[in-house]
């Protein structure tokens, strides 16, 4: 990605973002609510045109229709068909990703199992809880086994045990060469990632592997890195 600037109308929300996700790697965008994570993810997906800079995915400029079929995307807001069952949603969105129906029927149990939804596949989504909808959205992103996963807050509303199960799966997928970009405001998630980019007030305040950052900032946890980098950002802003 070329140095990116993004915003809404005349308001600049993101400045000077330089982000590269390597294949086989999990990159976590971490930052508090309102930091600009969803704006960045929507820009990468080609849903928003950058004010400045450009986005390239697999050496192709975004937006690009063919490429979208290779991306498993989970939006922050669940976009599901409430009047269909979970199974039917998975069939529908999987077909949109270009997977044959027969193949999908074989793949759905695996995707549903990752998020513990196998017993609830025949239920209508309108009868799902918020957490179940989040899990179904994640299963939809996973079902076509895409080369790239872009997940906006995939762990929100997910209990700790299942969260670990999901992380195990993400690590497995990365090992198999998949590229994963996710957003989170939870520091435990950042500790699981190979690379983190910390975003605060629309700027990247720290970037690197969790180990690198902990050593560079001379602290003991990713959370302390965030706090220290945040104080440095404030000091810098006050001097301007
Ligand atoms: N559609 C929009 N129009 C105007 N401002 C927006 C819009 N979406 C988000 N914003 C603003 O952009 C900033 C970043 O929001 P967002 O990217 O959603 O942050 P995050 O995902 O990190 O919580 C916030 O100040 C938010 O109010
Ligand atoms: Mg968001």
Automatic annotation (TrEMBL):
InterPro entries: AAA+_ATPase (IPR003593), ABC_transporter-like_ATP-bd (IPR003439), ABC_transporter-like_CS (IPR017871), P-loop_NTPase (IPR027417). Residues 1-226 form the ABC transporter domain. CDD domains: ABC_DR_subfamily_A. It comes from the Bacteria. SMART domains: AAA. The keyword Nucleotide-binding applies. GO terms for molecular function: ATP binding; ATP hydrolysis activity. Keywords: ATP-binding, Nucleotide-binding. The keyword GTP-binding does not apply. This is Nodulation ATP-binding protein I family protein.
